[in-house]
Amino acid sequence: MKFHQRLLLCAAMTVLFLGLAIASASAGRFSYSDTGFRQTFRTISIEANNQIGVQCEATFEGAFHASTWRKVTGSLVGLIRVARLNNCIEGSANSGATVLSETLPWHIQYEGFEGTLPNITSLRFNEVGVSVIARFRSPFGTQVCLIRSTTARPLRAIWRRSGNGEIPSGSLEINPTLPATGCIYLELAMYAVTSEISRGISTERITITLI
Fold this sequence. Notes:
This protein is 11% helix and 58% strand. It has one helix at residues 3-26, and strands at residues 29-32, 36-48, 51-64, 68-70, 76-90, 96-99, 106-116, 119-128, 131-138, 141-148, 155-160, 166-167, 169-172, 178-181, 187-198, 206-210. A hairpin with a 2-residue loop joins strand 2 (36-48) and strand 3 (51-64). The longest helix has 24 residues, at 3-26. 28% of the residues are buried.
């Protein structure tokens, strides 16, 4: 290849990479295909003293405040308006769990993402105010615990993102330091391995894109 051709090729590659870098750097917002969502969990687990206390099916329904939001850590981006725990089964030492519905809505804060821009593989959110009454049987008798996530110790949610921007599933990270009151357990863990995410009552997938 002649010298001037190599120069032209190098210049073209430089422009291309520079354009990609500028696009990634300037993309400071996420765009959401639908502000409403439903997240369905086959199993949410609550642990006490590293033992499964109770496992329930669960549904969270909510909405984002707008169709776009800024890619800023800690931003308040949405609310969980409806939460249900159903078909709870007993673990090693428990009797059940219910949502403290009077604490709704719960807040959703944007926490960050996984992957390398512009190829985002998942989004992370902090869910604050999540409140559940859990009842455990223990050597001290039945314990009734109020578990409530806070800004300092939130329930951490992960939404997985496919290559076309669709959000097919999510999870709740295990957090062994959720504060609990009203019982002998100072801290409890609440988590879910997987869930399905859709547009409201529809089974249609939602998409989140970087703009």
